[in-house]
Amino acid sequence: MRFHSLPALLLAPMLFAACSDNGGIDSVHRPGNDGSTLQTAPSAPDPSTDSAAPDAATDRFVREAASSNQFEIRSSQIALERSGNEPVREFARQMIDDHQKARQELATAITGSRAQEVDQTALTSRHAGLIEELEGAGEAQFDAVYLNLQRQAHEEAVTLFSQYAQNGQETDIKDIAARQLPTLEQHLEHVRSLQQARGGSTTPSD
Fold first, then answer.
1. In terms of C-beta density within 10 A (0-12 exposed, 13-18 middle, 19 or more buried), how is residue 192 classed?
2. Which of 7, 8, 18, 182 has a 20 to 30 Å separation from 123 between CA atoms?
3. Which pTM value belongs to this model?
């Protein structure tokens, strides 16, 4: 009887090595009910621990920030086409220059982050509606409408960038938000001063 148990003792190390080569206990072949063999797959990784998982708050920020830049650029291009007021035109030129630079900085920061790439020329429904309002303004009211929309858009942008600069999860994008925030605040003060000079409202929008 001792001679019959020898092959089993010799096979034991071979079976252990086979288990190790196939990913451990979870991937070892086991007999099925019909005499075939079943293989248990290794456990899938937990998505909640994936460092590359998308950040919804960051994706929202970059989408709205990109739209904000595009709104500033497009609305100011319209102002240069339609306004004859030199201070308004000077402001519009500054908006185009500053927000083109801001767009490039944002795009560069997105590339090195976990945020999803966005179309830098796409407008949210909110900003698209503001463009439609500007395009529909009459000649006599155009400058007042342009400045009022600029004030509203910059108030919203200051809030957006301020919140992400404080609470954002992506370091590069958070740094961009913090760095661009003072420029947005300067733009807001500039447009308010233009409204005040024209006798228009400078109070924050609802």
1. buried
2. 182
3. 0.71
